[in-house]
Design goal:
3-stranded antiparallel β-sheet; 7-stranded mixed β-sheet; alpha/beta; single chain
Length: 172
């Protein structure tokens, strides 16, 4: 897998991040938006988020318009069976990511905060990215194929010699 040693992930594209120090470069922990807020803002349009107090614009302002950081994807995946998780990633999460991209184009990054993501993602020798389901499920979800069709591969976000996340420029 290619390595990214640049900070482009803080300004555009989609990232899955698990390093606390790297998160501090984008926002403070209390500024991380919930997955519920993200889905409301992207899947239900402007009126619904404003009515519930969710504002991606406000969150983007806190990071100087560079990034919206979302927490809770890992926990939500853990609450689902592997089959439910695959369907949800394909039908809802991918749709929400595309809606975010369409609205903010190249003007902001979408970062999924996964505090233990480094222990949940597996990468095969052919760069296939999978998500390890929680017990009692021993399954792996083909994360990359579901979200970006495995046409291109994500890049490891590097901080020195340490892998701190994955970056993907744009879902199509």
């Amino acid at each position: 897998m290619k390595e990214l040693r640049d900070t482009v992930w803080q300004r555009r594209g989609i990232s899955w991040l698990w390093d606390n120090t790297a998160l501090d470069h984008v926002c403070k922990a209390h500024e991380v938006g919930s997955l519920r807020q993200f889905l409301q803002a992207t899947l239900y349009g402007e009126e619904y988020p404003k009515a519930t107090g969710c504002s991606l614009e406000r969150s983007l302002e806190r990071s100087f318009g560079r990034a919206f950081v979302v927490g809770g994807l890992d926990t939500s995946l853990d609450l689902l069976t592997p089959e439910e998780a695959k369907t949800w990633l394909r039908e809802d999460i991918k749709k929400a990511i595309k809606a975010f991209q369409q609205r903010w184009a190249e003007g902001a990054a979408l970062i999924f905060w996964l505090p233990r993501g480094d222990s949940r993602f597996d990468i095969s020798s052919t760069d296939v990215l999978t998500w390890r389901c929680r017990p009692p499920y021993g399954d792996k979800i083909d994360f990359g194929r579901i979200l970006w069709g495995q046409c291109d591969y994500p890049q490891h976000i590097m901080q020195g010699d340490k892998k701190i996340g994955f970056f993907y420029p744009r879902l199509s």
